[in-house]
Amino acid sequence: MIGIKDIAKKVGMSPSTVSRVVNGKKYVNTEKREQILKLIEETGYVPNKAARSMVLQRSFTVGIVIPDTFNMFQRQLFSIIERHLESFGYHTLFFYIKFDGASEKECLNRLKSEKLDGIILLQEIRDSTFYETLRHLQLPLVTATFSFSGIPSIHVDEEQAAMDAVNHLIGLGHHKINMISGSGFTFGKQRVDGYYKALEAAGIELDESRVVTAQYYTAEFGMYGMRELLLRNRDFSAIFAGTDDLAIGVMRVLKDEGLRVPEDVSVVGFDDIEIAAYMIPRLTTVRQPLGELGEQTALALHRAILGNNGLKQELVLPYKLIIRESTARIN
């Protein structure tokens, strides 16, 4: 079994120097320390996690902040992120949070109390001091699906993607297009902005009564939103839903009301969650690159933890409009 003397011999240094590095002591220059740590990693001298953490002065634990009411897209995303973090040797702690000040404060206190190497935010935070506190603690931080100034972030161009979705409906002859969005988050607003910009560019009159804002981005609230739109006005031929989960609720209510998709109403979603390709009819939607989004998020945090700035600001990933059976040319 390899020991400190063996490590010292291989690097050409004294056992006491190696011992100081192993025990996390100072007074060893950076070049020597890195050389010793590299050999320790290569030889497996520190096989257990607790000792490895002591030597490298890292916890190998990453915190992931997620909403307490997450939808299928978010569930798929943090599963992919977690898998990639595991491949880098980290284990994860999940921090559930509501979109309100008290919950954000409680979550921040929990993050501060844990020994974390870094944090990934899948939930946008309303209070800017939340981000500033984490910066002050010098904790590596990455955001996914949204951006915040000065913090590495990975996302798609939400507004343009929404414009493309609505333009697809316009291209099929639809002019009376309703929208169901969610509330509280920047990406929701960006998707609504894209909806309005596509209509305006096509010379279609803007009507705010055609837009409903759901409390959450779930199928249940998609149903509530669709029922609200039906009460307001039944004169429409298409629906743009801000997420696939909302679209699932929309299609359920349309069926209950005897309206056929796409013969009577065309429906477009956003995200391309796994079930979208198996629905009846299969859902036309904007595909976010889930695999790449999860991989790049984990990689960006890993590089930040290692001190490699790599991604300094934001990485905007490509999206794709996936045309399936839920949309058709207007009769």
Automatic annotation (TrEMBL):
Alphabetic keyword roster: DNA-binding, Transcription, Transcription regulation
Highest rank taxon of the organism: Bacteria
Name of the protein: Alanine racemase
Keyword Transcription regulation part of the UniProt annotation: yes
Domain HTH lacI-type positions: 2-56
Annotated HTH cro/C1-type domain residues: 5-46
Any one GO molecular-function label of the UniProt entry: DNA-binding transcription factor activity
Segments forming a coiled coil: none
Record organism: Treponema primitia (strain ATCC BAA-887 / DSM 12427 / ZAS-2)
